[in-house]
Amino acid sequence: MGKRYLITKEILLEMFGISERQLANLSKKSIVEKVGERYNLVQSVKQYIDFKGISRNDTTQSIVNAKTLGLLLGISERTVTDLALKGIIIKNDKDAYEKDTSITNYIDYLRETLDKNSEGRQQELNKKKYDAELKELKLKEQKKELHRTEDVKTVIQNMILNFRGKSLVLPSKLAPTLAHEANTEKVEEIIRKSVYELLEELSEWDPND
What we know:
- This protein has 209 residues and is mainly alpha-helical.
- Among the domains are: 6-57, no CATH class; 63-129, no CATH class.
- It is 69% helix and 7% strand.
- The chain is built from seven helices and six strands; from the N terminus they run E-H-H-E-E-H-E-H-H-E-E-H-H.
- It has helices spanning 9-16, 20-28, 41-51, 66-73, 77-85, 99-178, 184-203, and strands at 6-7, 34-35, 38-40, 63-64, 91-93, 96-98.
- It has a three-stranded antiparallel β-sheet. A three-stranded antiparallel β-sheet has the order 4-6-5.
- Helix 6 runs antiparallel to helix 7.
- Keywords: Coiled coil.
């Protein structure tokens, strides 16, 4: 069984150029095939054409004019002309068209158009999904970067507080030693050594401690 191409009521109404009431009557008579809230494109078009009263086996009417073909297909004469230029509808002479071949080609054309539209919609959905995922990843990365920045800021603040605390106790730590030292150079050496030790300790400071 071939693939069914389901279309909306609005598309079928536009194709056939009929009202919703007429479409409802066609559906009741099983002239158009309704599947749920949609319609089977190929079967509905074929049965509608037969309903119009022109049999595919009627060779006496195999050549029709643009107006008749347009009425059969539910399209305007201008559209018939445009489709003929594209080779979808077969034109033999001035205002003379091959009915059967043109109907078959038109159904195939509608089917291909639906396929392309479906592919286009799927590609659009895929692109939207990709864009949404990319946006989400960027947001996560921004949040992660923000967390990293906050972490670094916290580490630096803790390091400064630690250094400040040890610096503040340095005078009281050195006072007993310096109180009995009269040699200025010796005093400077003791202070310098203590500051270097403090700086070295700062460079080796572990925020996890």
